[in-house]
Amino acid sequence: MNRPHCLAVENLRKSFHSGGRVVRALNGVSLQLHQGETLGVIGESGSGKSTLGRIAVGLDTASAGSVMIDGERLEALTPALRRQRLRTCQMIFQDPYSSLNPRLTIGRQIGEGLLSAGMSDWRAIRQVVEDLLERVGLKREMHDRYPHEFSGGQRQRIAIARALAPGPRIVVADEPVSALDVSIQAQILDLMAELQAEKQLSYLFISHDMAVIARLCDRIAVMHRGRLVETGPARSVIEAPAHPYTRMLLDAVPRFGRRRSGARPVSVTLPQHGDDDVLVTIADGHQVLRSNGS
Ligand SMILES: Nc1ncnc2c1ncn2[C@@H]1O[C@H](COP(=O)(O)OP(=O)(O)OP(=O)(O)O)[C@@H](O)[C@H]1O
């Protein structure tokens, strides 16, 4: 893919110190999000996906490595410029209820994003917020209601409106539909796809669900224990997975497990990856982590 990248992380590392142990949540992750694409990040719980997303939007800092927006390394910028660049990146979380303030109206919460983007006239802000509410499938008069007055799907629509308010170009969505019923999931994914086309958004879409990733994503990045083990065009990764862990994820979804030839493995032995393992290109844009020397 020759499109320029709007967000990139380079050799990102993150360790947490917890209960006397060190958890290596990210162990040298590099990837690029191209303009207008949806890059799906998939992996089991604890593989480091949320940590990657939080660092990408500036909600957490890396232990080492770089985050770049439009080619600019954030750590080289002044705090004011860094904040300005990060405004182009917004995040949508799995559980909109806990990310929304129960004591503030939804209009106020969506409006805060407009304030941070420089608007100051509350009448104008209200107008834009009502337009946003309508755009995400809610009613303008819902402006003055509180989060508890909405269903889970409606709250995720509110969270999407809030993320869009500052006018981002990059949206990191961390399991945005995992807490929703399947029929509501489809509506939210459709809405996200429409908004992407309309506003030329780039999505870093985090999920543990291969079916959801396959539905929405142009490219897929597979994470396992803080490492990127495979990345490539969605079709190539789904039809010709090269890493045993990717095959295991696909085999767990009947639709994909059956599509490929060969018997379904009874058990999978996953390779232990060392620090000096490298991503090797196996097809156009398709890379897999291999032990150095194999
Ligand atoms: N604030 C923290 N303090 C200590 N350990 C943490 C912290 N945040 C994450 N971790 C650990 O880092 C590892 C990666 O966590 P992360 O949440 O990024 O994974 P994930 O793939 O997003 O999983 P999930 O889907 O369950 O959120 C896990 O072992 C997790 O326990």
From TrEMBL:
InterPro entries documented for this protein: AAA+_ATPase, ABC_transp_ATP-bind, ABC_transporter-like_ATP-bd, ABC_transporter-like_CS, Oligopep_ABC_C, P-loop_NTPase
CDD domains the UniProt entry points to: ABC_NikE_OppD_transporters
What's the protein's topology in the membrane? Peripheral membrane protein
The alphabetical list of record keywords is: ATP-binding, Nucleotide-binding, Transport
Annotated Gene Ontology cellular components are:
plasma membrane
The GO molecular function terms of this record are:
ATP binding; ATP hydrolysis activity
Listed GO biological process terms: peptide transport; transmembrane transport
Q: Which domain of life is it from?
A: Bacteria
Checking PANTHER family in the record gives: D,D-DIPEPTIDE TRANSPORT ATP-BINDING PROTEIN DDPF-RELATED, TRANSPORT ATP-BINDING PROTEIN
| Listed name of the protein | ABC transporter domain-containing protein
Question: Which residue ranges does the record assign to the ABC transporter domain?
Answer: 7-250
Give the signal peptide range.
Answer: none
Localization of this protein: Cell inner membrane
